[in-house]
Each structure stands twice: as structure tokens, then as C-alpha cells.
Amino acid sequence: MVAARSLHQSALERLAVRWAELAPEPDPALCGRLATLLRRLATTLVAEPFWPMAARDIGGALLTSGLCGPASCVAEAAEELLPASLRLLRAEGPVALGADPDRLATALDELVTGFVAELRDRAVAEQADALRATIRVHEGVQRALAVSEAHYRTVYTQGAVGIAIADLDGFVIDCNPAMCTMFGIGSPLDQPRPFTDFVHPDDLTEALDRFRRLVRGEADAMRTELRFVRCDGLVVFTDVVASLVRDDAGTATHLLAVVEDQSERTRLRLRLQRASYHDQLTQLPNRSLTEQWVQRSFQPGGAERVGICALDLDGLTAVNDGFGHQVGDQVLLAVAARLQMAAGEHLVTRTGGDEFAVLVTDPTGLAEVCRIADRVLDAFATPFLVGGHSLTMSASIGVAAAPTSLACPAELMRAADVALSWAKEHGGGRRVVFDPERDAGESARFALLSGLPGGVERGEFRLVHQPLVGLSDGRLRGVEALARWQHPTRGLLGPGRFIELAERSGSIVALGRWVLQAACEQAVRWLGELGPHAPFVSVNVSPVQLVERDFARVVASVLRDTGLPAECLQLEITEQAVLADETAALEAITALRATGVRMALDDFGTGYSSLAWLRRLPVHALKIDGSFIDGLRHPVADPVDASIVQALIEMAHALGLEVTAEWVETGVQAERLAALGCDVGQGCWFGDAGPAEWVTGLARRRIGS
To answer: Do 224 and 131 meet the contact criterion of CB atoms below 8 Å apart?
Structure first.
């Protein structure tokens, strides 16, 4: 645990160093401050329940960390540094922070929100200072009007902020040079103009409402953010302070508006927001915006049905490795363009490195979403001409669609991702539609897979034993130890339900060692009860176990610990496992045979092995695959199967090997096999697999007589 924590801390500190390298100016203490922020982020990501909004405070703290340089340059530096920081954290954060990528993406969205909010608050504070200065200017202007016309003109004509004077009917009667410059007016107004002529149409309602409230005397001054439209059509984002001007009797006579241009800061904020929700290479909406789109579609008043085509490029890694990432980026740009053409009016997003999505609102049904997916696949039929290369690309597509009243956003996105994984499993270059029944089956398999390691540790596995009987005398020669899983909720499970899962996940190593240990311990007890007549125990060895570097030492250690003589243990390996890697298998079998144990080649006859290959294999026995034995059960034996079995028996005997026949289910099969010279039989005719307690009784009587 301490080592794992140390490794995690080291990865976090390396990420902090990488992050600090983005800063425009070197700062020896910056790395430590960023490491503190990363630890806070890691704590947020593993907290239960998960509360992503906690990352907003981290975003605010990032603004004051010094990453963006001096306070006077923060706004300008943030435009480049924030997107670069997000790319770094999304790429390396899952490993360094030990976090779920989906949780990390959600938290980073909140971090950006906190960063922008802090940036906005700073701007508001600066504007508040300007407002106070403006009010002082107002007061100075009004005093100047009463005391000195010359002083007033100096402030009015040389001030850096825009100043406009309007009558109580809303007509601008004068504006200073700064205001004229801001609005693109070449000279002072030659006649009064309604202030509404300058206001952006989307802000007109709010501007009129505030104007009327001022005129009615509900307040002497108001502050608001308004957009104005210049004479050349450009939009100006401003902070406006409007106040009443009264005469000596206290009667309102005019309105005074002080206008500060906030366009640069506002556009920076908008660019930062766009950078957070758009892919920097293709400029397509990113995964965060994709998720928001799906969420909105499921809200009241949204779509009735939603479809998703989740797409993954096949072979982009090979392009990057063969031609370089610059060519790979050009491929992504070309793919984005083709996707938009193929998708038509539907939204195309980039959800990952080589992953895209087409989002379909209110399709008529699943068939329409499939047609869109087929159009996308057709778009890849023409090679991509990139960087002087003609590249043939394909894509895998997962399709999912559902009524918004019967599903939820997370389920729909997961369904599309699952269907995409199925498409890639089938070799790519195709679309696959999400199948709930198949998904339920795979979910059940995954549940079993996740419980395998714990099942071994909790002692949920059992051994049963199937007899191996001599065909010439009917006596018990050995027993094959077979694993069963006493699952806490699914009951007793046979090997067909879990062996393949265990091999694919690597859990077969721990399970196989348990089977070997338990089988040897039981064989020692039989040896104590039956002495020299005790049967040997046969244990199946997975191909994964066979090529383990220390498997022979494990076998020797188990024999030594249990006290079982090596000749009382037989290890069964499949013919296919040997053919998969003949050199490694031969080395492993040679090492195992050196321990003195018996070696048997299982399922023989299905792997198309050669006689020369078999001569080199140091095994003691062959087990003929039951598919050949099945043809001997009928009143008239299948002549082909009979010939094959006879040839296999004669070949094995010529090599000095003992022969075992599997799937012996009738007395007719047993008699025919004995007549053909087969040594040992195994199958339900001699007894199904049973508990260890049966074996002693079986050994003390003739079997099948």
C-alpha cells in the first residue's frame, strides 16, 4: 500500500513538473503550488459521492497560482495556457491522479468554469474600481459645471472613458471624443439621436427597462453590461454606468452615461469557453459538449428520440507510426470534413483522439440512424490524399437510438460505446447496432469475471473427480480433478462458464495454482488410505500457465509441500496450446517432466499435428478427443472414426505412449475401444465427476464389470 501510494505521488509530482513547464516565465515555487492543486483534484475525483463542482475552487485557485504569469498579464496568457493545461490533464491525468477518465473530464469542465468565474470576478472588481472613479468623475463634472466650464471641458474632452449626455426622452445630445472613437463616429453628433440606435438588438429590452427606471427616479445611478453596434457593424462589449443629472432644485434634467470598452476581456472569456468545449485541431465540439447536447435532448421540451453513431478510426496508430503525427493530424482534419458532409444537418463531434460521433435529433427510428451510419461508412470508400500519400482508411461505428421517455443520457451513450466495441471486435470497417440481450449476456460475463479473483481468495471453488479406468481390467488408474465454482448468487457453475474468462483475464494463474494444490493434497489422502493402489490425480494446465516462466518450480514446490510423489501427478496440456508456440511449450514440458510428473496431451487429433512433431514431445500419454469416440457408440460403428481411432492408438503405442479415450458413454464404446487396444477410458459410462469421498470406494472394486 505504501509503495502504491509512493508511486502515485511520484506520478503526480511528474505531472506537476510538466504542467509548470507551460508557464510563460520560470518560477521555482510554481511546481509545488500546482502539485497542491493536483492533490486537491485527486481528492475530489475519488470522493464519494462524487461532487464535480468542488473542482471550481481549484479552477479559481489556478488563476492565482502564477501559472499565467504576473497578475497584469493573466487575461492574455490564459487564452493559450488554459487549453494547453486541459489537454495535458486529460492526457496524463487518469494515470497520474488514479482517476476515472469520465470523472476527470467532468471535473475539468467545472475547473474551467471556476477559472473563468474567477477571471470574471477580477474583471468585475476592476470595473467596480472604474465605476467608483467614474462616479467621482461625474461628481467632478457636475461641480465643474457649477464652478468652472473650462475644467469640465478638460475632463470631458480628454477623458479615457466614453461619456455621453442624453435628455430624458432618450436622445443622445452629446458625446465626448472617447465615445466617438469607441463607436466609430468620425465627428461629434450633428443632431440628437435615440440611444437605441446604438444598442445591440438582443440587449435592447434590458437597456429600455433600465432607462425607464432611471427616468422614473427609482434610482439615481445604474450599472449594467451592454452590447453596442458600431457604425461599421462591429459589436462592442461595454460596462455602462448611467446616472441622473439634477439642477439646483433637485429636478432631473439629463442622463449622464459613462461607457468603458470591455470587448477584449469579454472576447477572451468567450474564447476560453470555446476552447473548453471544442477540439483544438478540428474545431468540432468535444466530448464535454457532446454530453451536454445529449443531456439537453433528454430534458423537458427536448427531443422525442435521440440517435448516436459512435465512430472510431481503424488504423490511425499505424498512420502515426508510419508517416508521423503531422500526417495523422491531417487525416483527422480530412475525416472531420467528410463526416460533416456525410452527416448533413446532423451534429458531428470529436469525442477522443481517433473517436467521433454523429448526433441525430428526432430520427424517425433506428433505421434512419443506421442509414446515416452507412453514409458515413461510404464516405471512407475514397482514399484520403494527405501529405503526398494516398491512405485508405476505414471506421468502426456503434449505433444506438432510444426514445427520451424510456432511456437516460448515460445509458444511450454507453449503448453506442458498447456497440462500437463490438464493431471493432469483428475487425472494424462496419457498423453494429446495440443489442440489449447481447449486452445483458456480456454484462453477466463481466460480473463473473470481476468476481473471479475474489472467488479464489474466498474459497468458493470446489473440486470434483472423474474416473480414468483401465479398459483391459476395469480398475481405477487415475482421476481427473475438475474445478467447479460455488458462486454465492448463481449457484454451482461448470468450467464452461468461467475457464475462458479466467484465461482471458489472467485469473487462471491463481485458480490453476489452487486446483493444483487442492488436487495434490487430496491425492496424498488417497495414498494414505489405499497405498500402492491409490489412483494418480490428473490436473489440466491452461496455456497461460504452461508458458509461465516459473511454472515448473511451482509444481515442484507443491509436490514438496504436500508430500505427493511426482509419479502420482499427471498434468494435461492441450494439443492446440502446444501448437500455438511449439518452442516455448517444448521447453516448458521438458522442465515439467524433469520434476518426475506424468505428462498427457489432451484433445489429441484436433490440432493437425505431425508425427515428427509428436516424436519430439516428451509426454507419457495421449487423450484422444471425444469427437472421434462418439462415432463408436452406434450399433454399427462409423468406419471413418473407427479407422482414425485405431490409427491414433497404433501410432501412440509405437511411440511408447499410453492412450486414453474421452467421452466413453456406452458399454459398446468401451468394448470396441478395448478391442482396438486403447488403454484407459473416461466418460459417464465409468462414472460422472463426483466428490473426493467416492474415489476410495471406486478404487476398491472393479469399474464397469
So the answer is: no
